[in-house]
Predict the 3D structure of the following.
Amino acid sequence: MLAALLVQSAPPPAAIPQEQPVSNDIVVTALPDIDAEDSLVSKQTLGSARTGSAVGSRTVFDRAQLWAKCASEPASPTRIAYLRQIFGTRTNSTKQAFAFQRLAQLTLACAPDPQAALGGRITGNPYYDRGALTIEVMKRIDPRLTLTRKQTGDPVVQARFNARETPLAKFRLPVDVRYFETAVCFVRLQPELSMQLALTDKPLDTVRRLEAAIVNRAKICVGNARRVYFDGVQFRFYIADAAYRWALATRGVDSLLPE
């Protein structure tokens, strides 16, 4: 189940200012402060009951991530083949579900509930399971993986992204589509910070500041809202999903995983 993405609307400005690319080694403390009065995201909106239990969400994700750290290891050609299928086929398709189930069965020892893993279930929430796996696979591929505004702003890269992702999104549910398209927008406008968010191992406070900075610097993605409420865990794994797909488009490949 996914929490709602809630916004409090504000009238659109006369013009949207163009933002300068952000250095990939940006210091988090120099970002727009999550506690600033004009921040679209605050510690209160991130922990708001409007989007469900933040503690419960982190608990589910932590369980999924423990498994994903193990399952993302390309330990054999068979495991690599299933990982490539999970990330290279239509989201929510039977082909993707089959590959995920086989990967779960191959990594029973890593799962919080081995019996459930036999049926392809890790936490009982496939969005969290795939989200955790996406983040850990990206770290395995290259913990220094980068994206730039020059890349995501390139019309050729954008066309390549759309050509690949439009058919792959065919089976996404409406709320899933909304989250994904919003994440695609955030990553396109703030690729450096988005990739940092996907790959970071920093404490929760750093994660929250990165999330707030992404939203504050790409207000257009949420209709220039005055306040934005979302589940921070879900925000991160949707950003990671979009960042991985943008990375494919910049390189003109269908997978970053080895053959």
